[in-house]
Amino acid sequence: MSRNTIVLGCQWGDEGKGKIVDLLAADSDIIARFQGGANAGHTIVVGEKKYVLHLIPSGIVHPGKVCYIGNGVVLDPESFAEELNFLTKRGIDYAGRLWVSPATNLVLPYHKLIDSVQEKNRGIKSIGTTMRGIGPAYIDKVARCGIRVIDLFAPERLRKRLNYQLSVKAQYLTGSDDERADLDKIYDQLMGMVDMFQPLVTDVSQALFKAHREGKTILFEGAQGTMLDVDLGTYPFATSSNTTTGGALTGLGVGPKMIDEVVGVIKAYTTRVGAGPFPTELIDTTGEGLRKWGDEYGASTGRPRRCGWLDLVALRHAVRVNGLDSIAVTKLDVLDHFDEIKVCTSYTLNGNTLNEVPLDLSELSHVKPVYKTLPGWKEKSTSLTSFGDLGENARNYLKFVTDDLEVKIKLISTGPRREDTIMMD
User: Can you list the domains of the chain with their CATH numbers?
Assistant: First the structure.
């Protein structure tokens, strides 16, 4: 493994980044989360134990690894406290190895209230948010009226900044009997969390720079996926942060020369949660099969995921904008069930063939996928750990994908557990 590596999603999220980060964390000193919030759900299976993390970096389950939450994350204090309690109950000691940037913006109850009201008001044009207040928290960050971790240690300033919300969010807060609009209650809750945050706050940018100078190995962990990037994804059906390589730099305060490798995680097929364009979506028994065999339900919300065949056009976009060096392929074993497997190699739009995503990504709602049909393997790949043990058709499927994307495979996941993995040379 290269010294410093970014791991990020290449599709619409839910690619299995948690397992990949967990695997690569074994050879890393530091794991740093750079964007997103508690709308992410990273699942790790170690033996018979299952861990689902939303904010804390996936490397925390490895003893001795140091984890950072960067300024690019929006942190829900309640969810964070629940995760800390979860780790404690599981016997995972995070003291002295979990740190949070003081510049991290907080997701507060009124953000969730606003999120739910806005989504309801959109009606049939709803975006499909998780209702966890992520978008409104990022809005406050950009509008420069957000509450940050550092504000918890300045009670008078915190009180003033909370009171200011009444003027900028009057339509949601004034006269509301929803407890999420109760700023006095929120203030008291935050003051009650000061002791929890006090030992965890550090300058993440400086800490990472110092570690890099000392030769430490750093793993940068992303959430969601490339096609949900607020600038480069299927806007407005996107998340509210930069899920791509650039987000790792700004979300942790590091320079590009600190990055040695970018690993993109792709599922062997495609899924999406929420509304928005999805060219290869299968609303039939095949799609239902992918959902069933892939257990495609959101780790954060439990919502059933939309399922479809692999989309190489979208993946070319991800390779380009992220500067991918390699890919990690997950859930290959889910395709064991199919006699034939289709791969989208291009789109047609208004009679024209598109080999790349359109300039206006909203047009993905109107494209038609062009498929290449490949033979299935109908052989069990679950839990295999050697590439040579895969069936010939499974190997050919992977070769077809990598030849098109012009990237190498770093590893292949053949099941949920750590050991269900083929590590490539």
Answer: 4-103+196-263 (3.40.440.10), 105-195 (1.10.300.10), 266-423 (3.90.170.10)
